[in-house]
Amino acid sequence: MSVPPTPLATALEGGPLVLDGGLSNQLEAQGCDLSDELWSARLLADDPGQIEAAHAAYVRAGARVLITSSYQATYEGFAHRGVAREDATALLGRSVELARGAAGGAADPAAPVWVAASVGPYGAMLADGSEYRGRYGLSVAELERFHRPRIEALVAAGPDVLALETVPDADEAAAMLRAVEGCGVPVWLSYSIAGEATRAGQPLRDAFAVAAGNEQVIAVGVNCCEPGDADRAVEIAAEATGKPVVVYPNSGEEWDAAARSWRGRSTFDPARVKGWRDAGARLIGGCCRVGPDRIAELAGVVRNH
């Protein structure tokens, strides 16, 4: 399980890198049942081979950065399932190890694959859609205390970067950035948005500003949003921070929580890559419902440009 010889931040100076797509949809395509509060994190204990296989599918599609299965993995969530704290620590570390194992299977040694340890928002642990609303009624200090232990566990497993992702609220972003201080691993910060605001309603320019002067943050951007909303968000992120931009929207379909099904049609179009790249995007991929086929198309566009 080799570690890329070049830091991710340095690699971004050479041009865009392709992220993977949605992990859950690929696991479902492999026949996994994710109808559980822990979502894909349940498989860290029950069937870790499926997670590594899903990562490997994205490596074959051309992804150069793999995001771990730890988005919904928290000490609180594992405890609710009766998992002891030391075992939860091991499972968090396993999420990094599985991605690293898949990365080590990349066919081209000249095209290394980096591992991003996913740190999802507090709302993901609640498993009630709160990550698409924010405003949990917790202070920045309380959110920092929630995030810090699992960040420490993920860092101990040796990822190349921490992905602070699907963050709905600038206050939570501030808490997460405080929680990663001094951990020795670079981070990217990625908001979930609606239009030109966070899900909690803060203007994106203000939300991105919390990371503007933070050298630990190597990229800022958006994920799990409408592909159309990502266009302007990439521009705002670059203007507000001067940092490389990370962008990985979902398929554009809408989740009907009552019916527990997706509605509408996919609007994810790899042709958008040129506009994102020109606006400052350097980490480009997909989120929910964007599978290896679309990532392969995206990778082809990136190579051609």
Automatic annotation (TrEMBL):
Keyword S-adenosyl-L-methionine: no
Binding site for Zn(2+): 224, 287-288
Keywords: Metal-binding, Methyltransferase, Transferase, Zinc
Gene Ontology MF: a single term: S-adenosylmethionine-homocysteine S-methyltransferase activity
UniProt superkingdom: Bacteria
Cofactor(s) needed by this chain: Zn(2+)
BP-aspect Gene Ontology terms: methionine biosynthetic process; methylation; S-methylmethionine cycle
Listed name of the protein: Homocysteine S-methyltransferase
Organism: Streptomyces botrytidirepellens
